[in-house]
Known about the structure:
The protein has three helices and eleven strands, in the order αβββββββββαββα. By secondary structure, the protein is an alpha+beta fold.
Amino acid sequence: MNENKEITVKPGDYVSNLNFTDDLFNELAGLDSGFDKIKIPAGGGISFEIPNLENADEPTLVKEFSAVILHHHPLFTYYENKYTGNNNPPDCCSFDGIAGAGIPGGKCICCDLNKFGSGENGSKACKNKHRLYLLREKEIFPIILVLPASSIQELSKYIRRLLSAGKTSDSVVTKLSLKKAVNKTGIAFSKIHFSVMRDLTQSEKDGLQEVINQIKNHHQNSSTEAFEEAIEV
C-alpha cells in the first residue's frame, strides 16, 4: 500500500519537487504513467490544444503559452503502412536521430528511408520530429510537445540565439506561439515561434535541476524500448 504523500509546488513559478521514482510512479501505479501532450493543429491553425484538467475530452485552445524547456531531443519515426490515427507504435524509431530501433533499424544517416524522396511528395518516409519536455507555470509535471519538421528550424535558430547570449533553453522562460505558413505546393501548415520571456532566477534554476536530471534519465532509459512513446501526434 502506497504511503499517502502530497505532491507540492515549492515557492517560485517554475520550481518542481516532483520525484519520478517516488511521487509519480506511486501515484500512477498500474495506470498510464506517460506524459500528456500538447497538440498542434493541422491546416495552419494558430491555437495549441492543451490538456484540460476539468474535461479531458475538451482541450484548452490557446494561441500562445509560456514554459521552461526542461529537455529536448530528436524523435524519428517510420511507419511501413501509412499512419491512420490508431495507437499503433512505429515500425522503427530513434530517440536520438543517430540510431534507429526496430525495422529496418541501424544508423539513421545511412538509411534510405531517411532521405528526401523516399516519402510522399518528395518528403522523407522517416518523419524527423523533435520532442520538447515543457514545464508550465505553477505546474510540477512536465508535458510533451512534438515539433513537426516545419518547426525544427525555428527551434534551432532560437537555441542558437540563446547560446550566443550565454544562455541555455532550460535557463529561461520561453514563449511559444503559432503562425500560419504555406509550403511550396500551397498547403497551409502551422509553424511555432519561440521567444524569451525572462531569465529564470537562480532559485528557480536550482529547484528545477533535479527534475531536469530525471527527465534526461527517463529519455536515456526509454530510448530503445518505449516505442509507444513515439506514436504519432
